[in-house]
């Protein structure tokens, strides 16, 4: 699966696999523990916390056991923090780590790996830097796993150069070390460097695996290295005996689509020896929309809706295609169909780290105590951008409302609210770092380029696909679709 199809918290080996457990059986064992009087044994309690943390449905039971423990050691805290981190509840993991510090319990390297995983998920670079300093200060043992977690954190929190520097300082490197840097470079659109590092890895005698090639092919995709990508795809089987998985085929489709080679991408999908998954089809649909192959995009999307009738993103894709075709009647019909099926778009949210706190904004958010100033700044941004030549992309709005209202809707997208908040609360000229849970829309992408120039700010945005570095009215990504 290409990085464009994965949440950026994806890390192929740094995360412990979540166990599949029978919650009812676990509760039964818990009952026996109490019955036989072992419920105050710290080792038994730690094991129960870990057991409950092995599934999303058990995490609250884990926290209840944890909170009721009379005596906790570092293993207790690590088990609970690790459970939160593995299940994507990163804010809870960070909050609990802070409580651990207040309690005066010294964390070990296992705890720090979980905390760094949470920082990576949140895009909390400053917190990640603090964790690195804490590791140095407390002389926490720097295992290879901990070093790899640091590399992964720096790369995915926007400081890939620091990740490379840390990588170069390691005496012992594993395949995870190499892959983390290659993936980081890919996410930042630095494909040439990712390819060079892969070649260096091969020269060092390190045998690549299938996950390395996911990062490598994604790097080729984001940097337009189509011929290199084809060569590496062929190399997998010929040189290393690696059978391509759906993720690798997805990377190739993504690469061809980004290069505008829609016909070749479609032919590639049709000739795949394994069944294309919906993610591959959605990649092709997005490319059709971006490159004007709207009839083909409509046809594929309708087929996808037939196979996935309850997946809301398929309807959003079709609606966006009709918007590009200026077919407002069909677009409205899709909206009505979604309403009838009880479907809603996944709400976009944007996080920003500021002053040791992480703030999250959703579209139209008025929950922040500074919301009136934030909206005044959004209005100012809008006026300044229009004077500079910005034209809102109103086709991004799914609602059937007039253009002025559509512009208002675009102005309250979570990215713009987070940027306005940053402009209000950070010194002039300093970089702004934000993390979007979804792919940034084309309007916000365009607007952020204008904002970076008007306010003389470098804006580093991590979305579901990759990093975008906005500076002087330009973005680091080769294209946007």
| Secondary-structure-derived class | mainly alpha
Cα radius of gyration in angstroms: 24 Å
| Global shape | globular
Provide the β-strand percentage band.
5-15%
**Got a strand count?**
6
Order of SSEs, N→C? Answer: HHHHHHHHHHHHHHHHHHHEEHHHEHEEE
**With helices defined by DSSP (H or I, 4 residues minimum), what is the helix count?**
23
What would the average pLDDT be, to the nearest integer?
A: 87
Question: What distance lies between the first and last C-alpha atoms, to the nearest angstrom?
Answer: 18 Å
Low-confidence stretches: 1-20, 398-408
Report on this structure.
By secondary structure, this protein is mainly α. It has 23 helices and six strands. A six-stranded mixed β-sheet has the order 2-1-3-4-5-6, with helices on both faces. Strand 3, helix 23 and strand 4 form a beta-alpha-beta unit. Helix 9 runs antiparallel to helix 10, helix 12 packs antiparallel against helix 13 (about 225-240) and helix 14 runs antiparallel to helix 15. The protein starts with about 20 loop residues before the first helix and ends in a 6-residue tail after the last strand.
């Amino acid at each position: 699966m290409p990085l464009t199809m994965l949440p950026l918290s994806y890390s192929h080996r740094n995360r412990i696999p979540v166990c599949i457990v029978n919650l009812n059986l676990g509760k039964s064992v818990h009952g026996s523990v109490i019955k036989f009087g072992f419920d105050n044994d710290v080792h038994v309690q730690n094991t129960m916390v870990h057991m409950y943390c092995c599934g999303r449905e058990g995490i609250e039971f884990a926290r209840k056991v944890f909170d009721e423990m009379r005596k906790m050691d570092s293993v207790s805290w690590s088990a609970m923090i690790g459970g939160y981190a593995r299940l994507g509840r990163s804010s809870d993991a960070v909050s609990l780590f802070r409580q651990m510090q207040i309690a005066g319990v010294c964390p070990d390297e296992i705890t720090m790996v979980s905390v760094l995983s949470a920082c990576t998920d949140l895009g909390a670079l400053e917190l990640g830097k603090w964790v690195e300093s804490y590791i140095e200060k407390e002389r926490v043992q720097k295992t290879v796993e901990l070093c790899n977690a640091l590399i992964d954190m720096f790369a995915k929190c926007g400081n890939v150069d620091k990740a490379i520097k840390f990588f170069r300082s390691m005496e012992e490197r594993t395949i995870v070390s190499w892959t983390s840097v290659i993936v980081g470079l890919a996410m930042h659109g630095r494909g040439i460097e990712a390819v060079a590092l892969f070649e260096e890895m091969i020269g060092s005698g390190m045998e690549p695996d299938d996950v390395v090639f996911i990062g490598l092919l994604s790097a080729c995709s984001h940097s337009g290295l189509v011929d290199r990508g084809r060569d590496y795809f062929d190399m997998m089987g010929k040189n290393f005996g690696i059978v391509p998985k759906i993720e690798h085929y997805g990377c190739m489709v993504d690469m061809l689509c980004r290069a505008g080679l829609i016909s070749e991408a479609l032919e590639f999908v049709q000739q795949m020896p394994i069944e294309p998954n919906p993610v591959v089809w959605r990649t092709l649909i997005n490319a059709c929309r971006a490159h004007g192959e709207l009839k083909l995009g409509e046809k594929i999307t309708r087929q996808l809706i037939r196979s996935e009738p309850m997946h809301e993103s398929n309807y959003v894709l079709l609606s966006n295609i009709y918007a590009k075709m200026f077919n407002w009647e069909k677009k409205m019909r899709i909206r009505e169909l979604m309403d009838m099926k009880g479907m809603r778009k996944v709400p976009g949210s944007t996080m920003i780290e500021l002053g040791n706190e992480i703030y999250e904004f959703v579209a139209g958010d008025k929950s922040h105590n500074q919301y009136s100033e934030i909206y005044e700044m959004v209005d100012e941004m809008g006026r300044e951008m229009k004077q500079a030549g910005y034209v809102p992309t109103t086709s991004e709005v799914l609602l059937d409302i007039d253009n002025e209202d559509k512009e208002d809707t675009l102005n309250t997208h979570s990215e713009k609210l987070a940027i306005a908040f940053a402009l209000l609360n950070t010194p002039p000229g300093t970089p702004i770092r934000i993390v979007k849970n979804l792919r940034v829309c084309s309007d916000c992408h365009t607007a952020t380029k204008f904002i970076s120039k008007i306010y003389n700010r470098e804006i580093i945005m991590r979305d579901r696909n990759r990093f975008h570095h906005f500076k002087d009215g330009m973005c680091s990504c080769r294209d946007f679709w």
